[in-house]
Write a structure and sequence with these properties.
The complex is a heterodimer of chains A (152) and B (115). Chain A is an alpha+beta fold and 152 residues long. Helix content of chain A is 34%, strand content 27%. In chain A, a hairpin with a 3-residue loop joins β4 and β5. Chain B has one domain: HprK N-terminal domain-like (Udp-n-acetylmuramoylalanyl-d-glutamate--2,6- Diaminopimelate Ligase, Chain: A, domain 1, 3-Layer(aba) Sandwich), CATH 3.40.1390.20. In chain B, 43% of the residues lie in helices and 18% in strands. In chain B, strands 1-5-4-3-2 form a five-stranded mixed beta sheet. In chain B, α3 packs parallel to α4. The radius of gyration of chain B is 13 Å and the shape is globular. Classes of the chains: A alpha+beta (152), B alpha/beta (115). The complex binds adenosine-5'-triphosphate (ATP) and magnesium ion. The site of adenosine-5'-triphosphate has 24 residues of chain A, from α2 and α5.
């Protein structure tokens, strides 16, 4: 089927501090994946990774974009932000490490678990940052032909 | 298996936002840290928390949580209720502490599981 070959993509603007709008990108991605017949376990992994990535821009950066692209081969998510950047990426990846301010911790964010959650749910994960400029995150979750059973 | 409806009755909870009350409850996860719930809760869990803001709904949807119980007489923010109704997530409240709610749930869910 020709539609099996198509690419579906989307792009979202994210604003630092805009907690109320969090989840818009991940929930659209989830809807797209479910309509393609991607198995629930994979949909959940992608949703978790996308949501934690959205939250990190909202919590730690000034502004950013989340872009996703779904093909029969993979779910690709990239998140780019302008913000303080990350000085020590190995440290940031450690579970429990967080620089979130107190008011963010009172909301229950800032456990230092988001990046480890993203990594655990991704098949490929790449985090790059320039201090004082911003951060880029690239996530890939691989699909097989059976997992992308678009029968619409 | 117990449904959310059964839990509401047995624990005398207030329904602040109504999703599907016939949903099964498989277990329970208790945490006020959202990324911890993202990592460790399971499908069809109840989630017991003190958090009242709208991100709770987003986490509950992504994780397939059957219902959220907010303890200690806290009320969900208006925006949380609105979002929960849109997403069909059940939000419940109780005047009791997390300890009390956890104790009751442990009894209910454990006795339910060996039937
Ligand atoms: N986009 C970003 N820009 C700047 N710093 C970031 C960004 N993402 C992560 N960090 C840094 O890495 C740390 C760890 O991130 P991680 O997502 O694991 O935890 P957290 O966001 O602090 O807490 P949680 O995700 O549990 O709510 C952050 O506290 C922050 O210092
Ligand atoms: Mg985070």
């Amino acid at each position: 089927m020709a539609s099996n070959r198509r690419t579906i993509e989307g792009c979202f603007q994210l604003m630092g501090g805009a907690f109320a709008g969090a989840g818009a990108a991940s929930s659209e991605l989830k809807t797209v994946l479910m309509s393609l017949g991607v198995p629930q376990g994979i949909v959940r992994r992608a949703s978790i990774a996308a949501f934690e990535a959205e939250m990190n821009v909202i919590i730690h950066a000034v502004a950013g974009t989340l872009h996703y692209e779904v093909t029969p081969a993979k779910i690709h998510i990239d998140v780019t932000d302008m913000g303080p950047g990350i000085e020590d990426i190995d440290l940031a990846m450690q579970e429990g490490y967080s620089t979130a301010p107190d008011w963010v911790r009172e909301m229950g964010w800032g456990a230092g678990m988001g990046l480890p959650n993203i990594k655990r749910n991704a098949d490929a994960f790449k985090l790059d940052s320039v201090v004082g400029e911003g951060t880029t995150l690239e996530i890939n979750i691989f699909l097989t032909e059976e997992n992308y059973a678009d029968n619409t | 298996m117990l449904t959310i409806h059964d839990i509401v009755e047995k624990l005398g909870l207030d329904v602040k936002a109504q999703g599907d009350l016939q949903k099964d409850v498989a277990g329970c996860y208790i945490s006020d840290l959202l990324s911890d719930v993202m990592a460790n809760s399971k499908d069809h869990d109840l989630w017991v928390t003190l958090q009242t803001h709208p991100n709770v709904v987003a986490v509950a949807v992504i994780k397939g949580i059957s219902g959220v119980i907010i303890t200690n007489n806290r009320t969900p923010e208006a925006e949380t209720v609105k979002k929960a109704e849109m997403e069909k997530v059940t939000i419940l409240t109780s005047p009791h502490s997390t300890f009390d709610i956890a104790g009751r749930l442990y009894q209910l869910l454990m006795s339910g599981s060996d039937k």
